[in-house]
Amino acid sequence: MSITDKIFIIKNMKMNSYALVKALLKQEKKIYKDIIPALQEKTGRTYNPDTFSKRINRGAFTYDEMLALCEILGYEIEIKKI
After folding, report:
1. Phi then psi for 67, rounded to 5 degrees?
2. pLDDT class of 80 with cuts at 50, 70, 90
3. How far is C-alpha 53 from the chain's CA centre?
4. Which residue, 21, 53, 78, 79, is most buried by CB atoms nearer than 10 A?
5. Which residues have CB under 8 Å from 74's CB, separation 6+?
6. How far apart are CA 81 and CA 70, in angstroms?
7. pLDDT at residue number 39
8. φ, ψ for residue 31 (rounded to 5)?
9. pLDDT in tens, 40-62
10. pLDDT digits (tens, 9 = 90+) for 1-48
């Protein structure tokens, strides 16, 4: 599957932030602990692996955190008028 295929799949799926984060991590073969240091650097916040996991499960991310997470994993969020 090419990168274009991956992006196409994600763009056409209706999902909440929990499912989106899990799908991106799975596609990039990353776990929470892999991305926490980069996320801390980008956002200036401190993340504990346990509380980070709980926040993902609750879908309790700010938009800025979601943008940072996507950037770390090599994705961008695109908003289009329909």
Report:
1. -60, -45
2. confident
3. 12
4. 21
5. 28
6. 21
7. 92
8. -120, 170
9. 999 999 988 888 888 888 878 88
10. 444 445 545 555 556 777 888 888 888 899 888 899 999 999 999 988
* The pLDDT of residue 13: 54
Q: Provide the residue type at 4 as one letter.
A: T
Domain boundaries in the chain? Answer: 3-73
DSSP string, the chain: --HHHHHHHHHT----HHHHHHHHHHHTT--HHHHHHHHHHHH-----HHHHHHHHHHT---HHHHHHHHHHHT--------
CA 77 to chain centre: 10
The two three-digit tokens of residue 33, written as one number: 């602990």
C-alpha dist (Å) from residue 48 to 12, 25, 27, 74: 32, 17, 23, 23
Residue 65 tokens, joined: 């955190």
Q: Are 69 and 61 in contact (CB under 8 A)?
A: yes
